[in-house]
User: Fold these one by one.
Assistant:
Number 1:
Amino acid sequence: MSSLTFFGGVNEIGGNKILFEDKGTKIMLDFGMSFSLSGKYFSEFLQPRKCNCLEDFITVGLLPKIKGIYREDYLKHAGWPKEEKGLDAVLISHAHADHSAFIHHLRKDIPIYASPETLAIFNTLETTGSGGFKDFCNFTCSFEYKSKKDGSGYTKIIGDAAKSPRIIKPVDFNKKFRIDSVEITPYEVDHSVPGSTAYIIHASQGTILYTGDYRFHGYRSEATEKMIDAACEYEIDYIITEGTRANEEKGNTESDVFSRVSEFVEDTKKLSVINFPSRDIARLKTFHKVAQETGKKLVLDLKQAYLLDQLSLLGKDYPTTDDPNLYFFAEKKNWGLIGRDDYPIELILQDYDKWERKYLQKGNILNFRDIKISQNDYMFYCNYFLLNELIDIKPEKGSKYIRSVCEPFDEEMELDEKRVKNWLNLFGLDGPHQIHASGHASGPEIFESIDKIKPKKIIPIHTESIQCFEKQYSNLIHAETAKKIII
Ligand SMILES: [Zn+2]
């Protein structure tokens, strides 16, 4: 017997957590965070408490109550009984938080399957990220202590001493692998983060296609096409498809973004200030191409430098940190010594985390002084958290701001957007000018894909527009949260 149980992503965009069971083998497809549920109870300064282990997450419904999947250090600290391992693997579709953020909470002995790009992003998040809930590839055991060597008391085990690797299984696109009796083939798909993966799962009771998030209008569109072709060759019994934009027509493509940004940057007399999702490498490539064609220098942040270095280890065509059109911005941190000649370099370096220091002495590092004196030369990547750097850069009249992210979809994002506008007004920056392409396929594209694949049953998830599927198809299965579907 096989079954699917949806613990997230039902009538909501994101939060995918799908348990697939086949003859005693249990595999989780994604283990992400529901943004809507998280926003219902938590905000920037009201967060689930780590010291409460799983209880805060489970109480509000962010994590499902399933035995045998959660980390043993948390169970022990909370005084919950020990559990036998109850999950054989987790397959991750891509490195967006709504698909992967809760890996943190999983047991160390559950193997994590993901594409090399996804793992590169996880490594980057672990090294450069700030929040407390990481542990994607490396597991940091919490709440352990030991007696001091001299017998004078106890000490908490923290830092490297608490770290050990998880069981990580990088997947090769198009190459079948096996978990017990279940055969799985991963396929690359185009999305707004590199290495996004769809999985075709051959189970005893039929073949399942889990699409993850996908689109056809980025630079990897042929990957999505190939995945659809592969799915057509198998008889797909069940398609679990995303439907984020099922209610929308086709929109901008990544190439449209490139053309519009090019024109825009050419028209800008002074500084071009830009914002785009930090790990959207397709968008990064778009701005990079614009920089090459307009003779500008694209200034990224240090976290992006780290990610590009991780991706370049994969030997594919990702831009490298040595690229002549790429520069990296050292923001003011701690004592704010960057850009000051009256302090020795050792002290300046001490303002930064260890991983950042190797970049600071390279020739392509810029600080606010460099940008301030030569504003027409640069396209300055300025996310929400870098806005205060504009105080030092002092954008001159004629500078413009390009907003290359999705429109705000909740109150908190709207409030942030108001703040961005206040900053732009403060400096007389022209903008925001919205130039963006979505990470998701449109309704017509999703339906066309389904029509090609001809699955026996359709399970739409990651959507608030299930009615659009209802209008098109009679062979729908309506998933219900935590209710097992026998297949
Ligand atoms: Zn996504």
Number 2:
Amino acid sequence: MTTFVPDTALAALVVAVEGPVLEPTDPGYAEEVSGFNAAYLPSPAVVVGATRPADVAAAVRHAAATGRRVSVQATGHGLLGDLNGTVLVSTRRMTGLSVDPAARTARVEAGVRWREVIDAAAPYGLAPLNGSASSVGVVGYTTGGGLGPMARRYGFAADHVTALTIVTADGEIRDVDAQCDPDLFWAVRGGKANFGIVTSIEFALMPVTRFHGGGIFFPGGSAPAVLHAWREWAPTLPEDATTSVALLALPPDPNLPPPLQGRFVAHLRFTHLGSAESGAALLAPMRSAAEPILDLVGEMPYPAIDAVHMDPTAPMPVWDRGTALAALPAGAVDAILDEAGPDSSSPLVLVELRLLGGAIARRPEVPNAVSGRDAAFSVYCLGVPAGPDAAVQVPARAASLVDALAPWTAGGGLVNLLGQASAGRVGALWSDDDRARLLEIGRRHDPSGMFGTNVVIG
Ligand SMILES: Cc1cc2nc3c(=O)[nH]c(=O)nc-3n(C[C@H](O)[C@H](O)[C@H](O)COP(=O)(O)OP(=O)(O)OC[C@H]3O[C@@H](n4cnc5c(N)ncnc54)[C@H](O)[C@@H]3O)c2cc1C
């Protein structure tokens, strides 16, 4: 159904907003709506290139007045392809960033990516709780919890948020923290974009200058030995160490180190906040699990943190799905190898296991709505849905993998690593009590469901 929007409403929006306001036929529209995930080009009814909180408020009021839903995009790393027909607020121009070295905090606007925070904090000997790729947006990542390479030591990024500013469905710009609207503060830290559009966020920085870590690449034929060794080794690690392991079908990309180009590999990732000697001692059992192709683990300055996961940085088509496990016995590893191992003909290009536990499992001082805290492992898989066959085979194999792991599934999961989700699966991430609280807060702040476009809780 097409919504009739009078020209005067759009004209008023154009006057109210400092940034561009673009409809599908306008030059610059396709560029404005495109992001990291090249599998989908969303088609919002109008995109508002916000430059300040007042622009975001004007976009929300316009959506309310014209009966449209609101969506938000910073980088397109979390695009789920359901922005169609919405008023899309593009936050990429909102790049304000300040670091308070004495308070060990940073405050950033909604369009800032982790790379900018890492580089601004490093001169003060501080580091943020970014994720595996510093090109991901701070706000989208943090509102979904945010599980990074120091997570077992410090917990989720959302656990360290101290204040935020958000535009709610009534078009008001609200400053929210543990004292001022604690319910909304609880919900936004873990409940994603269901409660409004965050225009800026303040969070603690950690006193980290260096880490011992990186990746070790093993040949695909060693994947069974590596995965079985990892499942026994990883849970023995202290909280100072965070690890994941991935089965990767690497492309013949000339930017990759030559021995990795076009290869199927098992990729061990490791971050240790301690001396190189103690890190090497911790890693010894994995180094002897199989003969590596490349061992890139060493001591590094924190800004080199992308070297741990070596995630792709250029836009690419992505179809992804995740789940969480309560345990990883040998049978679960065998199931992963059957579905996605070197002899499986799997169309998935990545299957990743992350060790949880440590600080991840502890509730923060100011509780929040982060899901998946009690799980022991996160599983995330990804395929490239290019071409009609892959568009069918990738989701089918991802579903088959998740089904094969069903005997070990944890009660919840991580919203950031859930991938292409149906509403039912999103809702199932939270306990009954937390889901009921999220829905009640959502109804109070957004009675008509304007924001329920990206992640629908119930
Ligand atoms: C290469 C890659 C690596 C990743 N690594 C990790 C990782 O290590 N750990 C982890 O936890 N996640 C990880 N993710 C998932 C990522 O954190 C989520 O997809 C996140 O939502 C991306 O946020 P974005 O702003 O960059 O993306 P966008 O696509 O711009 O936004 C995604 C969603 O975030 C929410 N959002 C964005 N801006 C706002 C706002 N201003 N107010 C309210 N909600 C907002 C909305 O729901 C939006 O749909 C990774 C994703 C990719 C593609």
